[in-house]
Structures are given as C-alpha cells and as structure tokens.
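Input chain follows. Return structure tokens only.
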Amino acid sequence: MAPDMAGTLPRSFWTHIVPQVLHQEPAVRHAALAMSALYEKYRGKREISNADKRYAIHHYNAALQQIALSKPENLDVVVIACMQFICIEFLRGNPSGAMVHYQYGKALLLTYNASAALLDIFRRLNFFIFFFSNFAGTAQTDYHCPPPSGPFETIDQAQEALGWLTYRTMKLAAGIIMNPKKVYNPEYAPAIFSQCEALNQDFEDWSKAVARLKRRHPLDVQMDAYKLLEARWLVCKIWARGNTSPDALKSEKEFRRIVEIACNVAGGRDKPEKSPFGFPALLYFVLMHSRTLELRLVALNIFKEKCLSESMLWDSEMIYQSAKKAIEEDHNIALDRELDRRMDGGGPVLDEKPGQIYAPTQSLCSWVLVVMDACADMRQPKKITN
C-alpha cells in the first residue's frame, strides 16, 4: 500500500516515516491496518465487504483509543496518527471527519518543535482549508519552506516549493471567493493585482530553478514526476495570473500543454493502468475551464480511459458526468453522438492548431474569470460506528 500512497511524486512519509514507528507504536499499527482494509476499495480491486468494514472500524477505534488513553510522550507519533486518521476518513468518504483530524494535528504542531518532514506534510494539507471548510475562523499557518527561486538539489525540494506557491495562490482565491466585490473595489483591487503579479514572478522563478535541476540530473528516472509537477505549475500559473491578459488563447496554450502531459504520462502500453495520484484533478481543471472543444474531448477521453474505472477519493463518475454536461452546454452538442462520430476515426486527438473556441457561460465563471475581468479593467485608466 505504501508505494501506491506515495504515488508518482516522492512521498517519504509513507515509505519511510510510518514504517519506522509502525511496530513500536500500537496506534500507528492499528491505523495502518484500518487503512489497508479500506484501501482495497480505493484501488478498485473489489467492493469492500461488511466484514472488512467492521475490521477497519475496529482497528480505527483501537487507534483512537490508544492515542486518547496512552497519551504518547513523543508528539510526532500523535501527528503521524493524525495523518493516518485523515486518510482513513477520506477512504470512508467523510471529508468533514478528515478536517477535524487535520485541525487537531495542525494545532498540535504549533505546540512543539516538530520535525521538518511532518511540517511539510501538514503544509501540503493546508489545501483542505479551501476545499473542506468554510474558510472563516480557520487557522492558516505559513510554514517556512524553500524559496521558489531555488536552488533545488532534489525534486522533493522543488515539489515542496511548488506546494507553498500553490497554497499562496489558493489563499488568494479564498479571499476573492469570500468577498468577490473586493476585486472591483479601488481600495483593494491594486493589492490583489499586486499579489497576482508577485505570484506570477515566483512561478517563473520556480520554473527556471527546476530547469537548472533537470540540467544537473539529465538522466533522472523520475521524468513522470517532473511532468506532473509541470502540469500542477501550469494550473497554478493560470490561477495566479488571474488571467490578467484578456487573451483567452494564452491560457488555452497552457491547457493544451496540460493535456499533452496527461497523454504522455497516461498513454502507452508500458504505462500503468492506474492514473497517478492527483492526475484526475488536473484533467478536471482543463475540462471545466478550457474553451477549446477538441482539447476538452481529448481530456474527457483520457479521464474516461484512465480515471473513470478507479475508485477515487472523489466520485469519479460524478466528476465525469459534470464535465460532460458542461461541455454539452457550452458547445451545444450531444456528446455521446459527437464522441461516437470521432471514435470512428480513432478517437479525439490533439490537432496542430487550436480548435473551436466558445464563449464561456455563467456556469463556468469561477473566481479565475472574475479576476480576469477585474485585472483587465485595472489595465485601463480608471466514535465510529459505520
């Protein structure tokens, strides 16, 4: 299970940190057994049985009791268990429960001198704030992390820096979502625009630092990991820029590159049948925000081929159907007939030039489009039992 949890990108937490304490700490051991039982469904191998559910709940409760009753002196153990509990709740389909454990673990980290590895894990989990909480009243701790300009000695450091930049971008997004009128308020708009510009520069610096890292290690076997980092970087660039340029095709080039990476990482007989961790979210971003029909059809086809059959933390069928519905409404087509027609020719493929561009509908006007409009204006004068 640990290598799969680690994914394409490095995750030493599962392959090194947890195994080191697994046999000495009963709470960590019980939590690992609960995760293992639930993970069978996530992997899509089989539907989890009632017996496995009871087994997982038994060990989950045992882990919780161990933490509550034994009160380990080594707080790292409690934080590690918190991370496991977060995963268990996600595997059970209960993100609100995962958020409770996240908040507890994060608060605990602030009470002692925690290891850098654990701080890094919870820095990445800061994203929970933006997806599974109401933002208000949620502590947002800005942990220290490598500067975006590097230098990076390993891909781990590059990933860590990108994670921090992503967090800053989403923090800005959360502020806009909570109070979108600020974007048009002359008192706040310049500061928002300045933050977007600063993030743009930091993302460019990060890209240059990664290019230097790749030149020093040209035969690095983790090329898929580099490509996935590039795809995340492109998504964040679109967010961070706030689409300050009104030229829609500028973003379309980035969407196209994300899909090219997806084709490369997911395609080919030598590639694993399982899509890399985080892969569906990147495709979904393109599916919901691209304005090119051909590009969206390619992304939808990859999602169907590589992601739809998997049991993901989010409902893959719901994601697929929502993207499909958005494409049908935006382009005024019946997608089943359109895909059947294109499949007769071997399936949708990336053309050499951009395809049909649609006018975005209100349903797709996310905060990104709000910022695009605003910044364009600013350029112009003026106990578990189940």
